[in-house]
Each structure stands twice: as structure tokens, then as C-alpha cells.
Amino acid sequence: MIIIEQSAVIPFKKGSNGIEILLVSTRKKNWTIPKGIVEDGLNPVESALKEALEEAGITGSVKKKKTGTYRYKKWGDVCEVAVYKMKVKKVHKKWEEENFRKRIWVELKDIPLFLKKKKLIKIIFKAFENE
Questions:
Q1: How many Cα atoms sit within 13 Å of 47 on the Cβ side?
Q2: Distances (CA, A) of 75 to 47, 55, 63, 95, 107
Q3: CA 41 to CA 62: how far, in whole Å?
Q4: I need a surface site. Which of 30, 83, 94, 125 has the fewest CB within 10 A?
Q5: Nearest to 52 by CA among 20, 96, 19
Q6: 3-state per-residue secondary structure call for 56-96
């Protein structure tokens, strides 16, 4: 079994009812956060920022300290995802993967209605427990 290193961001903004998280659709039409394999020549934070731009069309600032990690099976191996908080500064009207990904802002309290991975849900709630 190979462990594939991935990184992801929890894109957030402050909405009128508190924290809102931007989710993107997967190719299988589930919801998730922007993530991908840590690319050669990039550290996990840089790679996560690149994925956020490609998958969700967003830019912003990332906390360098990761908020957690989770694992899932894919391609017959295991992906280990380092997760970082990202304050969204700009949502671009056009982006690289817009033809097969949707995006949606979700209030923090409603995250369990959209995500399947329980470990990811816990990481997201933990990331914002003091805000």
C-alpha cells in the first residue's frame, strides 16, 4: 500500500450568519473541499492554494499551521490529506475546472448535510471552534 500525500484548504468567509465554507463538487457529484496531490516543487500549502484556484476559482490567504489530516482510499492506495484554513479574498467568475465542478457556500452548521467524510467534518468544526 502506498500513501499518497495530498493537501486541501477549508475556504471560508464571514457571512451574515457566521462562518461560511465554500464546497466544490467532485467528479462523482459529491461535495468536498478543494484538494489534490502535493505537486513536485511545491510545499503542501502552495499545492493547496493551487488546487483552490484550479478547482474552485478562489484565491486567499492560508494559515501555515494545518488544522488536521485525514485518510481515504483511492486508486487502490491511501491518500493522506493535510488540511489548512484559507480565508477567501477573491472568487473568480471564470476558473479552470468550471465546466465540471460546481461551488456552493454553506453555513458552518450545515456542513454535515453536504459532506460524507466524518473525519473531514470534525476537522472543519475543530478549525472554527474558537471563532
A1: 17
A2: 20, 20, 29, 26, 32
A3: 18
A4: 94
A5: 96
A6: HCEEEEECCCCCEEEEEEECCEEEEEEEEEEEEEEECCCCC
Q: Which domain holds residue 55?
A: 3-127
The answer to whether residues 26 and 104 touch, using CB atoms and an 8 Å cutoff, is: no
Could you read off the pLDDT tens digit of each residue along the chain, which spans 131 residues?
Answer: 799 999 999 999 998 889 999 999 998 889 999 999 999 999 999 999 999 999 999 999 998 899 999 998 888 899 999 999 999 999 999 999 999 999 999 999 999 999 999 999 999 999 999 77
DSSP state of 100: T
For the four alpha carbons of 62, 65, 66 and 68, in that order, the dihedral sign comes to: negative
Task: Please answer whether residues 123 and 67 qualify as being in contact, where contact means their C-beta atoms are separated by less than 8 angstroms.
Answer: yes
CATH for 24:
3.90.79.10
Which grid coordinates belong to 12? 471560508
pTM (2 d.p.)? 0.94
How far does CA 89 lie from the centroid of its chain? 15
CA distance 48 to 84: 8
